[in-house]
Amino acid sequence: MNVFIYVRVSTKEQLEGYSIDEQKERLKVYAKSKDFNVLNTYVDGGHSGATLDRPALQKMLDNISKTDAVLVYRLDRLSRSQKDTLHLIEDVFLKNDVEFISLSESFDTSTPFGRASIGILSVFAQLEREQIAERMTTGRVARAKDGYYHGGHYAPTGYDYTDGELVINEYEAECVRYIFNEYLKGRGYDNIYNSIQSKFPGVIQDRSTVSKILKRPLYKGYVTFEGKTYKGRHKPIVDDKTFDAVQKINSKRSSRFRSNTLYLLSGLLYCGHCNARLAGHAGKKLKNGNQLRYYVCYSRKGYPKNMTTQPNCDKKFERKEDLEQKIINEVKKLKLSDVTVKNDNSDRIKKLEKELDKIDDQLSKAVELYSLGNIPIDIIKNKVDDLNTKKEALEKRIESLMSESDNIKDVVNVIPTLKDIDKWDKEKQQVIIMTLIDRITVYNDRIVIDWMF
User: Fold this and answer.
1) What is the value of pTM for the model shown?
2) Catalytic residue among 10, 19, 48, 405
3) Is residue 322 assigned to a domain?
4) Domain span at residue 286?
5) CA neighbours within 13 Å on the CB side: how many for 357?
């Protein structure tokens, strides 16, 4: 009988005793003992059994009609997938009158029992593969929880990968800090990237890397795995405040502006008559080649029903340049007193911190009462749970007020520069306007601005 020998190992299996040479030798001895004529030996070295996309296997299948049988050392050498194993045996081998022989399991596919046995064992081969994958995933999750970076030997910009851990590369880290600081000043991705090429040559090769760096929690000291974030073992390059401030701007830009600098106020505008949004709209072209542009109420522009609030809205079209200039003029009027007088949260934070101290005292007294045995445990537990709930709510409120204060500080730093906003590029204007303004309501006869402070 003519046979093909098929051998497969993965790199890991070569180290564990399933070497190519050993498989080939045993199979040749077996073939000789059975008086088989070996036509060819097909070898896939370093290929997983989870897929059929293996070069030697595909060559063998192309020539399958030329043999009487396929001989392997063990069933899982052919495949670790139940579906693929049964496909090869039933849809390829048997349909071409080719028998399948496994040296270790002594299969004979010419009998119903032999085919049934292969089906059973192929289930276990797939189970083993899935268990290995599960163990590997569990191990990676555990490493992530312990703060280890998971990225092979690839070191992200700003770090070197040394002895399995991330170590700050000071030169690249300066580039990363520059990216964060410049973005907070109102500069866009392209603008920052172009500056980097002269200030930090060779650090970043692609414009998209700027955006990726600004969004990675890695740079404030965290690692991510499968969508979850864990405290990392590595040192952060930027502090939490800087990173979080960038995320706020990114979030607003993605939801409001979608990087559309053509319409500076896109995403901020609402109709004062029907409360629908206003969107950018291109009008007719002029003889000089310029195009008239407007902001138009969704209800007037014929948007889908879910975006239209009043079919008969009479909001007039707003000339883009005129409306944008009006808003820029209002921004230029801002004074430090407009911000600092109305938004100093320090007194409110101090009052809430005193409330926190009171709750901590009450928690201490509750524990003391329990230790003296004066009050039953269930009553103490209910009291402690209630106090902890109040404490958590207070802490969140304090954190929110502190964040607001940080935002106000950022605004305070910006205000002295606003006198030159007319000279800025559109991208920087957009970032600053987004930082300052929450909403603009446009009526036919007036404009109402809701500031962020």
Assistant:
1) 0.41
2) 10
3) yes
4) 260-453
5) 6
